[in-house]
Structure formats: structure tokens, C-alpha cells
Amino acid sequence: MHHSIEIEGLTFSYPDGHEALNDVSLVIKPCEKVALVGPNGAGKSTLILHLNGILSGSGSVRVCGMKVGKDTLGRVRAMVGLVFQSPDDQLFSPRVYDDVAYGPLYQGLPLQTVQERVEESLAAVAMSDYSQRISHHLSMGEKKRIAIATVLSMKPEVLVLDEPTAGLAPRARRSLINLLHELPLTMLVSTHDMPLVKDLFPRMVILDQGRVVADGPTSVLMEDKELLDAHGLERPF
Amino acid sequence: MHHSIEIEGLTFSYPDGHEALNDVSLVIKPCEKVALVGPNGAGKSTLILHLNGILSGSGSVRVCGMKVGKDTLGRVRAMVGLVFQSPDDQLFSPRVYDDVAYGPLYQGLPLQTVQERVEESLAAVAMSDYSQRISHHLSMGEKKRIAIATVLSMKPEVLVLDEPTAGLAPRARRSLINLLHELPLTMLVSTHDMPLVKDLFPRMVILDQGRVVADGPTSVLMEDKELLDAHGLERPF
Amino acid sequence: MLLSPVAMHIPDGFLSVLVSIVLWIVSIVIVGYALKRVGKDLGERQVPLMGVLAAAIFAGQMLNFAVAGGTSGHLMGAAIATILMGPWAAILIMTSVVSIQALIFQDGGLLVLGANIFNMAIVGVAVAYMAYRTVLRITGNVKRGILIGGFVAAWFSIEIASLSVAMQLVFSGTSPAKLAIPAMAGVHALIGIGEGLITVGALAFLLSARPDLVKFGGTRPIGGRLVWLVGLLVTLALVIASPLASTRPDGLEWVAKQNGFLETARGPLYRIIPDYLVPGISSEALATIAAGILGTAIVLGVSLGVAYSRRNRQTSGG
Amino acid sequence: MHIHFLDPYQGGHSPIHRTDARVKLVLSVGFILTTALIPIGVWPIYVLLFAMVISFVILSGVGVGYVLKRAALAFPFVLAALPLIFTTPGLQLFSLTLGTWEIPVTLPGVERFFSIALKSWISVQAAILLTATTQFPDILTAMRAVRVPRLLVAIIGLMWRYLFVLADEALRLIRARAARSGEAEIPGHRKGGRIAWRAQTAGGMAGNLFLRSIERSDRIYVAMLSRGYDGEVRSMPLPKLEASNWIELILGGGILILLVVLSLLIWE
Ligand SMILES: Nc1ncnc2c1ncn2[C@@H]1O[C@H](COP(=O)(O)OP(=O)(O)OP(=O)(O)O)[C@@H](O)[C@H]1O
Ligand SMILES: Nc1ncnc2c1ncn2[C@@H]1O[C@H](COP(=O)(O)OP(=O)(O)OP(=O)(O)O)[C@@H](O)[C@H]1O
Ligand SMILES: [Mg+2]
Ligand SMILES: [Mg+2]
Fold first, then answer.
1. Contact B42 CB / ligand 2 (< 6 Å)
2. Tell me, what's the pLDDT at C198?
């Protein structure tokens, strides 16, 4: 299997003419965990939305060896699990179970399999008891976990997260980090949380104004105070 | 003037019976800057909402020497500037100007004065050029500053902020911290941002399950690893 | 009542069965058609957009402003939904709002839900659309026209919908025409002003923050002409019929007819179940006593059952 | 902030809670229909209906007090029927004198008014019992079972999900406004501003809420697309109704029909 992401010369402008990505190239190897950082408005979320074809610019995006395009959309979306910043936007069903079952159900899997998938993914995020709970009664940290379960149930090869730790209290944040650490998937995570980057990601990519301005080992880039400063970032301490 | 906050034996339950505050006592002296920390659901926001009478429990809350109650509500609200976590909730007018002018207009001040107040407070947060901008189109960091301006225009004696740095990119966060540092007001700030507490607040109060579990100099409490651990907190590094 | 600002949600028991069922049928047909229309216009977007906007209308109804003497102005939302989304989508949005209010908050009954959908989602939207289009036709698609149109649409939608409610109460024999109609019309003429002001405020906000959203000032939705016509006819019919109805000594002739209907239904029943089969029960006093005893027996039986099942659970639970 | 108080569901394990939502929905509506069909002034049947509701309330364990309190919320509408007391022609009981007016109170009027009020009160209790013992997602399933269009059910489901999120937002806006509605210590100033300005502010808050909702719906749409949504509404198939469910339905329906027949016999 190729659980990889290959982006080449990706350029994208929003309909209003704003250029959000400018000639971005990036290769992520199977099971690599990469952090995507940069100031507000750098284009991180825009880049992420290209990975499963919700946006499509010029240039090429290949996921698991497959070019993202009209005809591969269904398969690509099954392989890329996208977790959005706000779990309230991701959990749109009234009940946790329905939400986690949503992906498999739309893939047309048999009920038996759907059932198994739901159980497995809730177990993976340590939320097995929550399947009959009502989403809006959950705490933020619980919602984040369920949001991850909703994409795990699709058995993705690649996990993409947009600002997973925003708004979490320290303990909930720590438990989420541990969870991410244990999931054996290719991972691309956009974040403002520099300590998280340092703890969890061996490699980081800095995006600014739609361009990749740095890409390398976290331990090296984190020491480059000038680089960080120039792009509105800070060392964790 | 007494720009002080005196809370004594404050207990509060939500209508559904959930006890959110339990016998909280706290005195903040004029021009003191105090951080309020604790895990999610500790009761921080609930406490803050008592300071200008949006909620009212049993026990006594005195602000600037005045007991918060039905008859003093108007004056208390003019003296306490409350900035909520999400600036989107605070900025309900289309244009920055209208929002900053809301407080003074509600107080019935003459237009001339309103105008001056708006200019002064925008200047205080270094956003003088923004008065005709549409709030909705501003960046998060800009919105936060405007949110602070909306309460500064009421010339409060006491500034109360609920999680001011949440969701800010590192640079915007830094600039907000500098701003808070310079404002010469009594300040009570609820936050999960432990480095912020360390940088800005000489004194911190830990709340958990509706009770004050610790209150003292930040430098001392931050060293008490056991205490922090017991209440879901973490040292900044 | 707690959550809905406008006294327009009819509870169960206030409309006759006939009126309730006729309005259910009318509403089902129109909402079904709206579902088709919106499906064609919006495609996949419709579920999230309609659902979230319906929730927004509901939440928007919590926003109020102080008027005077402790009263306050509120939003009902049919007009703003119509102006933002066009009539067909607005019908779906308001239908969802009214349904949830009935299903969760008992704000409006279940049997009369068809009538409440008819009043708030169909009459409210059609009239708002008619009023808004008419104003825009006169002023042209300019900012001032949109604001004036918003006010007029909001006021008319409230006022005409309230007349519709009043007429239904009269037809059901629940309220005498000469009181119900002027009272509803009068109160809602005031409420409508609040609705109008707040709608204008919302439109002004959207016009400066995202003018592209206040869109159908320019482009006409498909089937708009039909809605406009329906809105006009409903308005005219209610405006003409209500004063006529309220000058009648009482609105009960219609009710008498419905009772006559029941009477004829009862005739054959009596023939099927001869008197001697239920001896004594034709006497009302006895019947009441019998019912009382039976009722008490039911309550007692159930309470015993509960106690029994509790004990069972406790023993099985340890 | 949590506005859980919006959610009327009262958790529990009573037989009523465990009954299939489809059965409960159909029987509740049937019960309300029955109540509506009972003619004016057939008091014995009203007593029976009331006894039935109260029995089920007790059985459900949600608390008679809770149900009565919520039922009172729907009461103001009774004002609409009040004039019947004075305007229905028939035997005059007595008359009220209001200044120069003589208002007759008639027996059929009183009878009519109390019938309507009582029927309404009984119906609302049935509806409260339904929502207090059934989680809303189950009511959605029941709606699908009675053939409400899937699309409408999907929209209503999504609305319910975001009701709480957006109501929280509205509540926060209201609090933010209250927090800045202060008075200066300057005598002679009229506080609060003009009505039109206050309305404009409230309108701004509403506009704000709509704008954010529309943008949120964009994000939800993207989230749905990412999980394979293609415009068609798909959902878990309905579980089969078991024999016991059918028995409950037939039994309940039978009793209701019996009540209607009985009432027509008693009614004079
Ligand atoms: N729908 C849109 N239409 C037009 N411009 C947009 C749209 N969405 C985003 N943009 C713009 O594109 C740029 C990149 O936005 P993006 O959301 O990808 O940034 P980001 O790196 O995710 O920022 P943040 O850290 O704040 O989430 C920004 O300048 C933004 O204003
Ligand atoms: N409107 C409400 N009704 C009932 N309970 C509530 C309400 N708002 C808050 N609570 C509960 O009160 C407790 C305190 O909540 P509060 O919002 O004050 O916590 P907090 O310390 O601000 O948490 P966070 O760090 O997550 O903002 C929590 O357990 C919460 O669930
Ligand atoms: Mg982003
Ligand atoms: Mg809080």
C-alpha cells in the first residue's frame, strides 16, 4: 500500500481572486507524521481541503498513489480522514453512533460491517461507552475524540487534522496528544500549538502566504529563531 | 476610588441544579492583576459572570466598593469591563465603530463624548484606523483587540477577561499580552494558557469544582507540581 | 410560550378536527412541493443549509429588545428567511422550526401542527415574499428598498398570519369572530412593528457585512410568480374576509354545521349499539361516576404496577 | 455555556421509556386526536382521558409536578377561548356588570370554554409525556417510520443538533450586550438609547447569528462531503416492529376508538 501524500506545484485561488496557495510541493512518506505551521491566513486549511478533493487547484495532488480528481473522489475520500478544527461542525448527527456510522454507511458497506467499524473506532479513541450519547452533551475533549472516531470508522490510510488542540484544557490536550501518538497512520496536522509540534512531530513544514517557506526536521527548524520570527511563530519556550 | 473586587461566600447553582460555585471568597486589590485557572468546567466563567450581575448567587460580590445587586446593576456594569472568550460574541454590530460606541451610547452620553471615547479606546488598543472596518472581516487577533476596545470605551475601573489568548497564533498572542501588560487597570483573567499566567500575573487563583483550591503568588504555586497535577494543570514547560 | 415570542402557536384542543385535517393536507402538499423545488435548486447543499438556518431562526427568536414598560420586541423569522433564502427554502426552514417547537417544547400542538405550519411557514412566507417583491418592484433593487421591503414584509407576514390563526379559531368555534379577529389583528399589528424593526436591523447588518447573501433582490427564484400570486390572494382574502366575519353576531353557524356532521355520525351508532346494551350509562351522572371509578382504578393499577416493577428491578439488580 | 434546559428529555428506565418510539408517537397523536374528537361537555370521557395520561405519567416516573408545570406554559392561549363564556347563546347563568355594560354569562358558554381548556390541557400533557420519555433521535426515527419525507427528517435532525449550539451563541450575545449595558453616574442622562437604536442592535445580533450560521453550514457541508455525502439522504434501516409492538398499537388504538364511540353515545 502507498499511504503517501505527494503534492506537486499546487496553486489555488479562491473565487474572489485571493491566491491562497502558490506553487506548493510536499511529499509525505507512509506513516510519517508531519506538522503544518504558519501564521493565520497562511493557507494551511486551504491546503488540507485539497487532500480529499473538496477544493481543487492547478498542480497535482496524489494520495496513496492515486491522483485526486473527479473520478477518484469517492475512493480518495474513503482513504483520507479529515478532522476539522471545530468538532461541532464535524459532529452533525444527533447521536454519537449515527455520526460514527455515517462514513461507512455512505460507502455502502453492509450493516454488519458498519456496526463493527463503529465499535472498533470508538474503542480506538477509548470512547466505547459513548455510542448512545447525544453529541451536544459532550465536553470539548470528548467531542474531539468522537470527531476522530468518525473518520477512523472509514479506515483511512491518511489522517489529516486541522488544529486539533485548540480550546482544550491542558489535561484533555495531553490525552489527545497521547492518542495521536499511538495511531499508526500517515498524519498531517495543521496547528498553532508549538509545544505539540515539538512533542509529536519529527518533521515540520512552515507555510506563509501560500508558500512553503521551510520544510525539515523539527529539532533543527525550532532552533532557527530568525526563521520562526519572520513567520509569526515562536519557540515553545 | 476603590477599583477593587471583593467576593465573599459566593455559592451558585444553575437552574438545572448543577452547583457551579461553592463558597468562593476572593479579594482583589486596586490595580492588581490576577489569573484564574482550573480545568474545564471548574466554574471560572460562572464566577466571572457574577462580577457584573449577569448571574447572581448567594453570598456577596462587591465591585469598587459597591454591592452588586438589582439597584446597582447599571452602575456596576459601567464599571466592570467584561471581555468574553469569543470576540465573535462580543462584536454584534456590523462596523467596528458601532460596536465600540455601544456602551457609551447606552449610557446616554452626548454624541461628542461618544466620539471621543471611541477614538481613545481604539487608540489604546492600537487600532485607530479600524473604526470603519467591518468586524466580521477582521482576523482573530484584531477582533480580540476590538473586543477589548468595546469595554474600554465605557471607561471601566476593572477589566475581566475570559480566556483572552485562546485561538490566537503566536504573534497575535504576544501582542495581546503586551497590550494587557500596559493597561493600568484592576484585572481578573481566566485562562488555560499557563505561560501567559507566568509572564503576566504575579498572583494566581486555582478553581476546581466550584471551589478555590489555591490562591497565592504565581511563582510559588507554579512550582507545586502535585497541586497542579491534582487539578488538571501543567507547568508551562 | 416560554420560547416563542409570538402568540401564534395554536395548542391542541383549540381547532376542530375538520379544520385540523384540512390544513394538514394543504400543508403536506405544499411542503412536499417545496422539498422538490429546493432539491432542484440547491442539490446537496440543502440539508446542512436548511438545517442550520432553521436552528438560527430558532435561536434568533431568543434575541429581543426592550420596548417600554417591561415588554419587548422579538423575531419570528419568516420574513428574514424568505428574503435570505427565497420562498421555497423559507417554507422548509419555517416548517422545521414550527415542527421542533411542537415536538419538543409543546409550543403548538401535534394534531394542529398542520395548521401551525400553514400559518407560519406557508402564509407567513408567501405574504412576506409578496410584500418584499412588491416593494422592490417599486423602489428598485437598492439598499433602501431592501430595508423598507424587509420592514413591510415582516409586518405583513405577522399580521396576515395572525388573521389566518383568528379565522381558524372562529371556524372551529373556539373564539367568537367579533372579538378574536380585532384582538389578534390589533396585538399583532404592534408585534409586527417589533418584527419589522429587528428584521431591518438584521438586513442592515448583512448588507454591510456580506451583501452577497441578501441575494434574491436581483434574481427571482423559480416559481416566484406563483408564490407572489398566492401571497397576494391570501392577503386579499384574509383582509376582506376578516372584517366581514367579525361583523357577524357570532361565528358559530359553521360550527353548528360541524356538530351536525357529528350528529349524523351518531345516528347509525345508536342503531348499532341498542340502548339496553349499556343500561344506565345514558344517564350522565351515572356515567361520570362510572368514569371516575374506572379512572381511579387505572391510576391505582398503574401505581401498583410501577411499585411491582421497581421491586423486581431492585431484587434483580442486587 | 450549556442550555440543556432546552432539552425536555428526562432520562429513566420505566416501561414508558422503553416502549418503541414509533408506538409512542402514533399512540400519542392518536390520543390527542381522540381528545379532539370528543364532543363538547362529555365530562366522563374527559375524566377517563385525564386518568389515562396521569397513569402513564406516574408509570414513567418523570414526575406529575414536572408535567403539570410544563403544561402550564401552554395555558395563556386559553384567553382566546375565554370570550365564549359571554357570547355563546343559551341559558343565562348570571351577568357581570362592567361599568355600563351588562355581560351575560351563559351555561353553554361556560361548558364550551371549560371543555376546550380541559381538552387542550389533557392533550398537552400527552405531548409532554412523549418528549420527556423519548430521546429526540428516536422521535426522528419514528417520523421516518410514519413516512415523513427523509429529506425533511434529515433537515429537522440537523436543526435539532445545531439548536443547542446556536442557542448557546445567542445566549452569549445576549450576555455580552447586557454586560455593556451600563449606566454612568451622570444624572439627567437618558440611558438605554432610542427604541429604533435598540431594535437595530438586536437586529445586528440576529444578522450576526445568521451570518455565522450560513458560514457554519458551509463547514458542515465540507465535513459531510469528506465522509462521502452525495446529496442523497441515507440512514440506518428501521428496526422491525416486533409482535409486542403491534399488540401495544392495536390495544391502544382499540381503547381510543372505544372512548370515541362511548363519548358519542353519552353526548346529548
Ligand atoms: N472562502 C474563501 N474565500 C476567499 N478567501 C478565503 C476563503 N477562505 C480562506 N480565504 C483566504 O485564504 C487565505 C488562506 O486561508 P486559510 O484558511 O487556508 O488559512 P490558515 O492558514 O488555515 O489560517 P488559520 O491559521 O487562521 O486557520 C487567507 O488569506 C484567507 O483570508
Ligand atoms: N447554563 C448552564 N446550565 C447548567 N450548567 C452549566 C451551565 N453553564 C455551565 N454549567 C456547568 O457549570 C460548571 C462550570 O462551568 P463554567 O463554564 O463556569 O466552567 P469553566 O471553568 O469556565 O470551564 P472552561 O474552562 O471549559 O471554560 C460546569 O460543570 C458546566 O457544565
Ligand atoms: Mg485554518
Ligand atoms: Mg469558561
1. yes
2. 92
Assess if residue D98 is contained within a domain: yes
Cβ separation A170–B237 shorter than 8 A:
no
Do residue D16 and residue D121 come from a single domain? Answer: yes
Residues from chain B contacting residue A236 (CB–CB below 8 Å): 237
Q: Which pLDDT belongs to residue B44?
A: 92
With a 6 Å cutoff on the Cβ, whether B57 touches ligand 2 is no
**Beta bridge partners of residue D235, listed in sequence order:** none
Name residues 35-74 of chain A within 8 A of D (Cβ).
49, 52, 54, 74
Instruction: Please tell me whether residues D36 and D132 are part of one structural domain.
Output: yes
Domains in chain A, CATH or no CATH each: 5-90+158-230 (3.40.50.300)
Q: What are phi and psi of D174, to 5 degrees?
A: -65, -40
**Statement: the pTM of the whole predicted model exceeds 0.95:** no
pLDDT band at B149 (very low <50, low <70, confident <90, very high): very high
- Amino acid sitting at position D129: L
Residue identifier of the C-alpha nearest atom 12 of ligand 1: A20
Find, in chain C, the residue whose alpha carbon is nearest to that of D219: C48
Count of domains observed in chain D = 2
- The pLDDT of residue D3 is 53
User: What nine digits make up the cell of C252?
Assistant: 358559530
**Which residues sit opposite B28 in a β-bridge?**
B5
Q: What is the CA radius of gyration of chain A?
A: 18
Question: D133 with D250, same domain?
Answer: yes
Report CB contact under 8 Å: C44, D221.
yes
Position C217 scores a pLDDT of 46
DSSP string for residues in chain A: ----EEEEEEEEE-TTS-EEEEEEEEEE-TT-EEEEE-STTSSHHHHHHHTTTSS--EEEEEETTEE-SGGGHHHHHHHEEEE-S-HHHH--SSBHHHHHHHHHHHTT--HHHHHHHHHHHHHHTT-GGGTTSBGGGS-HHHHHHHHHHHHHTT--SEEEEESTTTT--HHHHHHHHHHHHH--SEEEEE-S-HHHHHHH-SEEEEEETTEEEEEEEHHHHTT-HHHHHHTT-----
- Give the chain B residue whose CA is nearest to the CA of D200: B93
Are residues D173 and D134 part of one domain? no
Please report whether residue D51 resides in a domain: yes
pLDDT tens digits, C63-111:
878 776 666 777 889 999 999 988 999 999 999 999 998 988 888 899 9
Do D255 and D224 sit in the same domain of this protein? no
Report if residue D184 sits inside a domain: no
Q: Which residue out of D10, D180, D200, D209 would a mutagenesis test of the B interface target, given it has the greatest number of B Cβ atoms within 10 Å?
A: D180
Q: Are residues D83 and D207 in the same domain?
A: no
Boundaries of every domain in chain C: 17-315
D28 lies in some domain: yes
**Measured in angstroms, how far is the CA atom of residue B232 from the centroid of ligand 2?**
16
Looking at the fold, whether D122 and D20 belong to one and the same domain comes out as yes
**Inter-chain touch D5–B103, beta carbons under 8 Å:** no
Q: Which residue of B has its CA nearest to C206?
A: B94
Which grid coordinates belong to A106? 455512505
Residue D102 Cα, gap to closest chain B Cα (Å): 45
**Is any ligand 1 atom within 6 A of the Cβ of residue A20?**
yes
Atom of ligand 1 nearest to the CA of B139: 26
User: C17-315 has which CATH code?
Assistant: 1.10.1760.20
Pair D171, D121 in one domain: no
* Mean pLDDT of the residues in chain B: 88
**Average pLDDT for residues B177-196, to the nearest whole number?**
88
Task: Supply the range of the domain harboring residue D175.
Answer: 163-179+203-230
Give the ligand 2 atom nearest the CA of B38. Answer: 21
| B11 CA → ligand 1 middle, Å | 44
**Residue B47 Cα: closest atom of ligand 2:** 18
Q: Which residues of D touch A (CB under 8 A)?
A: 4, 7, 135-137, 140, 157-158, 160-162, 164-165, 216, 219-220, 222-230, 234-237
